[in-house]
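Crash report, auto-generated. Payload:
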Amino acid sequence: MASAAQRRIKSISYAKYGYMFILPFFIVYFFFQLYPLLNTFIVSFHGNGLNVDDFVGFENYKTILFGGDRRANAIHETFVTSLKNTIILWVGNFIPQLALSLSLAVWFTEANLKIPGKGFFKVVMYLPNIITAASVAVLFLQLCGQSETNPGFLNQFLSKIGVVDYDATSKKYDVIPFIEGVWQPRGVIMFIQTWMWFGNTMIMLMSGIQGINPSLFEAASIDGASSGQVFRKITLPLLTPIMAYTLVTSMIGGLQMFDIPFLYHRGTAVNEDVQTIAVMIYEYFHAQLEQSKMGLAGAASVLLFFITLVLGCISFYLTRDKDEIAKKKQRKKIAKQLKQESKQFGGFSV
Amino acid sequence: MSKMKSVYGEPKDNYSSKLKIKSTILFVWFVILTLICLLPIYILIINATRDHSEIANSLSFIPGSSLGKNFNTIATNGNFKLSYDALNGYKNSLIITVSSTFLTVFFSAMTAYGIHVYDFKLKEISYTVILLVMMVPVQVTSAGFVSFMADLKLTNTYIPLILPAIAAPSVVYFMRSYMKSSFPLEIVEAARIDGCNEFRTFVSIAIPMMKPAIAVQAIFAFIASWNNFYTPSMILINVKLKQKTLPMMVSALQASDKLNDFGAVYLAIALAIIPIIIAYVFLSRFIIAGVALGGVKE
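Recovered output after restart:
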């Protein structure tokens, strides 16, 4: 028999507290993010290159996606190059980064490996991530300097080991163009991104591995599983949610890559070979006073939004929890069966 | 007897010696990675103590003696004074970062808690909305955001840099995932039976239990905000040098081609980087340990 107190607890509805707890988030979200997002959509349908307020329909999108006259073609080409650069830079940093951090996370959490100073290594590998990206860009700009008479650290180092020629009479270096080349600056930026983010990813994955019930690993080691088997059969499947999180955040981060490509150049113009979509939007947005490219910036933003959306959905689909889905299906099936059975008995549940 | 010993003895020795070799190889690999991680920062510090012509002529791994001279250049040289003011940069960045980190962590934990603990009609929908929202890049909203802030006359203030931190979808997502795996609802019921009100349950039971997740997310939020260059440079359009954040000042070093003294440039970058490295050295234990599991196990 249920006591009076138990019955009372059941009858209290706590739903209103749920709303109270999530309210601040949604108020701020609507005010500072959703409205600006809608505003961006509105802006993307306006501005014809002369006046920001004119409604032009899909013309901005048409210009960016397909070009048209000479001016439109130039904008279209900039967009395509920026998209290509963004993809190149992201892929070139994510693959080494994930390989590095996943292997490190597994090695660091393996209990029977006796490696001294694990704590120190973890601390040092996370270090680059806390440094401001803007400072890092300026620092690498100094280190990768390509002046013939006063090159940066990298060219000096390469001449020491004999890769870069040094002419002693004219005191000039035959420098590698780490700033103004095509693939050299791309390589440098990929390196910087990997350098900065692998420690971060490693710690995220490690926290995931440590969240796995240790008795599973114990049982596996008692049963004589090799470390490869443990990785494939225990660590990897149970790590899927955290991996999904890492993949999605890295992808979104990659599309937003701004600070380093924006700052990694000498002089005033951004290097076209590393110009990402985010840089393009920023440039167009700031060019509004002279050329009124505000609408184009809005349209490019909206396109970026849809690209992100598609990528996010794909990665969620690929890394979804298959067991959970199977269970849900089963539950639905059982519920359906019960319904049918209850119908058989004339609508009364048994 | 001896045969049996060899049968049972060998595989074990083999196993441990294999482990030893693996450990050694990994140790060497870790040392190499460590060197790669530290080299750029080390060179930065070394070059900050060297003279412009020394840097131009040779590379060195030993500190020079021009630290004072470089400091002097930053403080007195007209070109540097126009674009770089480290002390005010620290102050401004710290104000923005500390307040936005607190807001992010507290309100994200609260939102995740609300969705995880309570049953209400819009529960699933609101969580789906948060997941969708997580994917919206800053760049997408920035054009609309800046023009909206300009309408409200909030550009060139810190409010648009601090207040939006309350809504951090990715942090909510992480906290919810964490709560799913290690925050049993029985605890909330136990607290209710003991007469604890809902908000107090959250503050004095859920938050301490979520400390590992909160620590990790606070660090990420702090880093993201401290390192943010995009939003401040869009919002703080025409403020005086005194009100700029540190990343904005450092980026100005790149934009100007009048700063020809490389020693001083290195020192200016070092001044922006070193304080946070020092803070990291003290906090790192907490940072790395923060990922361990807390609270009740099933």
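Post-recovery validation: Strands of chain A lie at 166-167, 172-173.
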